[in-house]
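for the writeup, i need someone to sanity check this before i put it in the appendix. the sequnce is what the collaborator sent (i think, or maybe the updated version? ugh). structure was predicted straight from it, no edits. if anything looks off just tell me and ill rerun, i have time this weekend
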Amino acid sequence: MAHNIFGNRFYGHREEAWHKLGFVTQEGMTANDVIDVFGRYEFVKRPLLVQLNGEITDTDDYAIIRTATKDDPIERSFGYVTKQYNIIQPDSICNLFDTNVNQPVETMGTLGKGEKLFLTWKLPVIDINGDEIKMYGLVVVGYDGKTGANLHLATTRTVCENTLTIAVSEANDNLGTGRVWSGRHNSKNVARNLGIWMEHVQQQAEQQAEITRNLFLLMDDVKLTAKEEVDGLLAQIYPMPNSIPAYYPDKLIGEQQARIDERIAEVEKDRSLAYELFSGAGTQIKDTAFGLMNAITEYENYGGIIKKPIEYSVVFGNRNTNMSRAFNVINEYVRVR
């Protein structure tokens, strides 16, 4: 998946992104400072007209138009909305962030031709007995008539379209602390509410970090020393395929069974390789529930049987599904002990 950064509009605090676009500073910057470097632009609503019975007729709908920029000196239309649609200008988002969060920007960028903006800031680092888990507040606002204003907590540092998808996916699947707030542009209070929720997230950051830290500490406190115990969890994380239904046509049973046998072999290999990482082959992995989660994550990101490109599978496919399932299975296991 391409980075999809609009022009050169990416900023990173101290750390360069993989795509090498934009700029990096060692000193913290406000959101308004960053957008000044990007170059400010606006969005406007314009009436959508159609020719009907030979006459130009107002549809009561509107097109969302981005004004021209220095590097894209033409106007762009991104979607169609009703008159109730309230535009939160990029300038307003920056003002809301600087006023309500009052923290340095970690990353900020615009995607496509400017139809989506993301902004992140660092929340307190969670230390699990020497293993650091970084958390970010993530604001995403779209101007395509579909994406509203959203606020997430995530553990992925957002630098492009790909990592944005991962961060939002992990939040929705509870791999991070989740989606905090979502607002529609047709609400007259959407900008106000976004600012209030950003302030709330910052004020509650220490508490949220402690909640998440306690969850992973709980995982780290649960020892997994019996192979049967680990095998049982891996069986839930990598389940076997269903058998052939009784009503299946006789002439197709052979072909279907061959596919099932192939999948069984893949599952057995997944379990075996994940167990190898957990039992010593992984990178500084302990014999705890947290260690098993780390083993699954390492395996899914750097190994596994896959036919599609890894960046696709980590975001949309089996790798993402397996990591989500692993978190849920292990979390449930430690909670009911």
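The longest strand covers residues 116-128. Residues 5-39+88-212 form one domain.
thx in advance!!
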